[in-house]
Specification:
Number of helices of chain B: 4
Oligomer: heterodimer
Order of helices and strands of chain A: HHHHHHHHHH
Largest sheet of chain A: none
Shape of chain B: elongated
Largest sheet of chain B: 6 strands, mixed
Number of helices of chain A: 10
Number of strands of chain A: 0
Radius of gyration of chain A: 19 Å
Structural class of chain A: mainly alpha
Helix content of chain B: 10-25%
Radius of gyration of chain B: 22 Å
Order of helices and strands of chain B: HHHEEHEEEEEEEEE
Shape of chain A: globular
Structural class of chain B: alpha+beta
Distance between the termini of chain A: 46 Å
Largest interface: A-B, 68 and 53 residues
Helix content of chain A: 55-70%
């Protein structure tokens, strides 16, 4: 299991996940809400990667959790729920893309992924310069690489196998692609602007 | 603000900045989360919650991209004592079902998540037919069984 350095282990242990599933099946609403709270980030990151308008994304998000609820009794390994929710979110997003008659290719390597909108106002939402610069640089990457970086920041973390299954990127390519993406970010005009600015200031 | 990471950001710096920027710029919408919470709204239901026992859409979920999606979804729910078999037709919203054991005294209500509902009585074989066009619904066999919310 590959994990990113930033990931902290604030996520419930396997035993707690199993208990939450059991309690949710017992109609314990607080347990269900906790499950949603644990898994919502993973689901949203998958759904956000698809070429869908915001309203459709919300519908896909809701139906992903309705699927989880309807299948709760069939979940054998609660510890695998993050991967399960990623797969389900992906399938629900594809169903919606199909319903919207977007072109849904036959090939896993060409999912209908979307690109970060170019007109968003990140600066208002991001409170540090590096994040703003990184956001600007990520926007220049391909939709597939944007999606990969997005899923690599999911919490609870997804394994490379789970990311591979979600995005159709071969497992062995994930590490090298990530490295290339980080290198591109590092050398991007957005980050270089800061570097050059710093150099000018000291020269 | 300490701007030193800008000059020579390490992989870890970039990972952290990526996580922060995705989380801050793409937050999960509150109204979508509220809908997800609502999947487990049991209100004051007295019926027993039936568990999914079979789903035709699950078997081909992983190859759905390559196959033409079937128009009909077959589902089966069970409490152990009562079984509900459903056939949901997507194109015209027809739900044909069979409850066993079920009798002509039993009432079945198809409830949509937005509050609408359609009621029918079981026939002598425990069968029913309902037309409902909502995408998210649940079925109640009044006083006996309720299914989880189903995404039709």
């Amino acid at each position: 299991m590959h994990r990113l350095p930033h990931v902290t282990s604030t996520w419930p242990a396997a035993g707690e996940m199993a208990t939450l599933v059991e309690r949710a099946l017992d109609r314990d609403q607080a347990a269900w809400r906790r499950l949603v709270d644990i898994l919502k980030g993973v689901a949203w990151k998958v759904i956000y990667s698809f070429d869908l308008p915001e309203e459709d994304r919300k519908d896909v998000f809701a139906s992903t959790f309705f699927r989880l609820h309807e299948r709760l009794a069939t979940i054998r390994e609660p510890v695998k729920l993050p991967g399960w929710i990623a797969t389900t979110a992906r399938n629900e997003a594809l169903t919606t893309c199909r319903a919207r008659q977007r072109v849904v290719p036959m090939d896993d390597h060409d999912l209908p992924l979307g690109s970060i909108a170019s007109d968003e106002l990140d600066e208002a939402m991001l409170d540090d310069e590096l994040s703003v610069a990184v956001r600007g640089a990520v926007r220049e990457l391909s939709p597939q690489h944007q999606a990969l970086l997005r899923l690599l920041t999911a919490e609870p973390p997804l394994s490379y196998d789970e990311i591979s299954a979600t995005l159709g990127i071969p497992r062995g390519s994930i590490g090298p692609i990530r490295q290339r993406c980080l290198e591109r970010l590092r050398n991007s005009p957005q980050l270089a602007a800061f570097r050059d600015g710093g150099n000018r200031a000291t020269s | 603000m300490n701007t030193s990471p800008l000059h020579h950001p390490s992989d870890a710096d970039l990972d952290e900045a990526l996580a922060r920027s995705f989380d801050a710029a793409e937050p999960v919408p509150d109204d979508a989360v509220a809908l997800a919470y609502a999947a487990a709204t049991f209100d004051d239901l007295i019926e027993e919650l039936a568990a999914l026992a079979f789903d035709s859409s699950a078997s081909d979920a992983l190859v759905a991209m390559r196959t033409h999606q079937s128009d009909t979804r077959m589902l089966s729910f069970s409490t152990g004592d009562v079984t509900i078999d459903l056939e949901i037709r997507h194109h015209d919203g027809v739900i044909v079902g069979e409850v066993s054991p079920g009798s002509v005294d039993d009432e079945v209500v198809a409830e949509a998540i937005d509050g609408g509902s359609v009621t029918a009585r079981l026939d002598e074989h425990g069968r029913f037919r309902i037309v409902i066009h909502d995408r998210v619904l649940r079925l109640r066999i009044v006083g006996k069984v309720v299914t989880p919310w189903i995404t039709a």
